TrEMBL record:
Pfam families in UniProt: OEP (PF02321)
Cellular location(s): Cell outer membrane
Keyword tags: Cell outer membrane, Coiled coil, Membrane, Signal, Transmembrane, Transmembrane beta strand, Transport
Name of this protein: TolC family protein
Coiled coil: 164-215, 339-366
Family classification: Belongs to the outer membrane factor (OMF) (TC 1.B.17) family.
Signal sequence range: 1-18
InterPro entries recorded: OMP_efflux, TolC-like
């Protein structure tokens, strides 16, 4: 009993520790973790393995196939045949009913089949290889999308965290101003409007703070979902928004040449075009003859009763070797129609390939422009924040000295709060737009 209690205690402690496991991530660590544990990434790995198994499934159809058959028959009522009676000394022109053979039969056979020539088989092997490349590219695209989603979610968590910190700081300053203004008003040294202006601003800050706290929890749960862990698992981010944004400002990235063949969407549409080409070859191969060989070996036993498993049963062996040649001759133009449809599908795929090339070039220019604009906006937002802080500080001093009204102070505070949010959002935009550009270039973080 004592040992059992000890084991249960150890198991409980281990379970409790597992429940309290805290995850700590830099952005790069979060990306690497997600590529291993994200639900979509896991299934993409499975799809690639499935494609490899499908390739072998196709190859195996052209390799030797062995099958076995065992059959048993018991003729409850045997068929009767008639023979001329004169064979047994009877009258000519009459017949004698007679039963041939024994009522019970057992048969065991094994058949070896080998495909000698089939044009569709060769095309099938090529298609299986192309499908593996397609699955590999799909896995690559999934990884890129997971990476992008993690970067955005990581930035959103940092944005919500920074927003909460700034709003708490703004709230504390406002509460201090409101307290001092309330005292001045109570002592007859201030106006009621000044108190009301600060109350309006404080109410707005409180609402924003509550919303930011909710968003902080939601964004963290979204990040956990992308990481492939429980959404309520305690997760800590090891980077702050400002440092991360600074790391993402890379002017050299704007000088990177766009290589079409590196883009994963171009790879996928190229795979689809290759598949359409193979489908056309497949339809053309249907007009070729097919040749198969088979070797059959079997044994049959007959008996009046079921004694096939005894050593006294007599078995009669047989064996057959043969070739099957199938020659397509006329299909009422059915094969021709299928071939023409495959040709149309190939032409459509080539058109889509050309369209994709043009779209990707435009997408690259757009992503490059957006990334450059996000850097410019970040620098502008940073300068505006410094100006807004100075303006708010001057109005704060003027207000305390009675040289500025509460309305002027509220305008300066509102301008500061907007500048703070724009600055935070500009840092997130730098991070996200850099990721968009890297997606087009297919550059790894």
């Amino acid at each position: 009993m004592r040992n059992s209690l000890t084991i249960l205690l150890v198991l409980f402690v281990s379970w409790a520790n597992a429940q309290e496991q805290t995850y700590n991530f830099t952005l790069q660590q979060a990306i690497e973790f997600a590529l291993e544990n994200n639900y979509s990434a896991i299934n993409a790995d499975r799809d690639l393995i499935d494609a490899q198994k499908q390739k072998w499934e196709t190859i195996a159809t052209g390799l030797p196939q062995i099958s076995g058959d065992i059959s048993y028959q018991n003729q409850l009522k045997q068929q009767v045949s008639l023979i001329p009676a004169e064979f047994g000394g009877g009258e000519p022109g009459t017949f004698i009913p007679i039963v041939f053979g024994q009522p019970q039969t057992a048969n065991a056979t094994a058949t070896l089949r080998q495909q000698l020539f089939d044009g569709s088989y060769l095309v099938g092997i090529q298609a299986a290889k192309t499908f593996i490349k397609y699955s590999q590219n799909s896995k690559e695209k999934t990884d890129l999308e997971v990476r992008k989603s993690v970067v955005e979610a990581y930035g959103n968590v940092l944005l919500a965290t920074e927003s909460v910190d700034i709003l708490n700081k703004n709230k504390a300053n406002l509460e201090k101003n409101l307290f001092e203004t309330q005292k001045l008003y109570e002592n007859g040294l201030g106006e009621e409007e000044s108190v009301e202006q600060l109350q309006i601003t404080l109410s707005s800050i409180n609402n924003q703070l509550k919303n930011s706290l909710r968003l902080k929890d939601i964004t963290l749960q979204m990040l956990n979902l992308l990481l492939g862990i429980d959404i309520n698992a305690p997760t800590q981010l090891l980077e702050n928004l400002n440092d991360l944004a600074q790391q993402q400002i890379r002017p050299d990235l704007l000088e990177t040449d766009f290589i079409m063949e590196n883009n994963v969407d171009f790879k996928i549409i190229t795979n689809l075009t290759q598949q359409r080409e193979l489908e056309l070859k497949l339809q053309k191969s249907m007009a070729l003859p097919t040749l198969n060989a088979f070797l059959n070996y079997g044994s049959t036993s007959y008996s009046d009763s079921f004694n096939f498993l005894s050593s006294d049963a007599e078995w009669f062996d047989s064996s057959v070797f043969g070739l099957d040649l199938h020659i397509p001759i006329f299909s009422s133009l059915g094969r021709s129609a299928k071939t023409q449809r495959a040709k149309i599908a190939l032409d459509k795929a080539k058109t889509q390939l050309s369209e994709t090339e043009q779209n990707l070039r435009l997408q690259y220019k757009t992503a490059k422009s957006n990334y450059l604009f996000s850097i410019e906006e970040y620098n502008t937002a940073k300068e505006n924040l410094n100006l807004a802080e100075r303006i708010e500080n001057k109005n704060q001093i003027k207000y305390e000295e009675g040289l500025a009204s509460s309305f002027e102070l509220r305008q300066a505070q509102t301008q500061l709060y907007n500048a703070q949010q724009e600055y935070l959002q500009s840092m997130v935009e730098v991070i996200n737009k850099k990721t968009d550009l890297e997606m087009v270039l297919n550059n790894k973080l």
